[in-house]
Amino acid sequence: PHSESLASPLAGPKLYAEHGGLLFFPSLVHSNWQFLVQTLNLWGLVLDGDRQAQLTNYVLWAMAGAAAAAVAGRHFGARAGAMAALLVLGIRAAKDLVGSATDMFGLTFYVLLFVGAALAWWEAPGDRRKAALVGLCAGCCAATKLLALPIVALTLAACAGRALVSLPGPVSRRARALVVPALLATVVAGPFYLKNWIVAGNPV
């Protein structure tokens, strides 16, 4: 059942064991899920059974609410930050998801961090530390769920365009500002897509 915290992280490995090795099952959603949050759930199962796996989701749920409050509060004021946190923490799906091994709260948390970092870089496209933070957050998003790829691609494209237009100097110098975020995003998210490529012959 969906609420069973053991079902999600064990469904894939069970089938792999039954077939005597690592295989890609296109019809099995777990074969398409990324590792960044799922691996935390698996470690939780090893260390403390399903309670630890569930605790991971509760922590990510709370962190997602805090991230919403921080990003919205910084740009729209404390009242907007509080409302954003309530929306994330009070969403109807939270009741069903916090007790199961899911990657949705991880996705929400990392996307909110990524949006916050992207807004900060947008305001200061020459800041290398903010550019690095954008790349790190982008990689975390892409390594958590495939659904994050369109968000990451569109936001990075917008930030890249702003950097190329607003930074001084020749185009080659302005383009170098994009190397750090692109490299970090690739390093963080790369292992999952490399796994797909090796196992299934298709990175996505």
Question: What does it look like?
Answer:
This protein has helices spanning 7-18, 38-76, 78-90, 93-97, 104-123, 128-142, 148-166, 171-176, 179-200. The chain is built from 9 helices and no strands. Residues 1-5 and 28-32 have low confidence and may be disordered. The protein has 204 residues and is mainly α.
Tag the structure with descriptive keywords.
204 residues; mainly alpha; flat
Chart the SSEs and their pairings:
Elements: H1 7-18, H2 38-76, H3 78-90, H4 93-97, H5 104-123, H6 128-142, H7 148-166, H8 171-176, H9 179-200
Helix pairs in contact: 2-3, 2-5, 5-6, 5-7, 6-7, 6-9
In short:
With 204 residues, this protein is mostly helical.
- Helix percent band: over 70%
Distance separating the two termini: 27 Å
- Mean pLDDT across all residues, rounded? 78
Number of helices: 9
Taking Cα atoms only, what radius of gyration do you get, to the nearest Å?
Answer: 19 Å
- Class based on secondary structure composition and strand pairing: mainly alpha
What fraction of the residues are assigned to beta strands by DSSP? Answer: under 5%
The general outline is flat
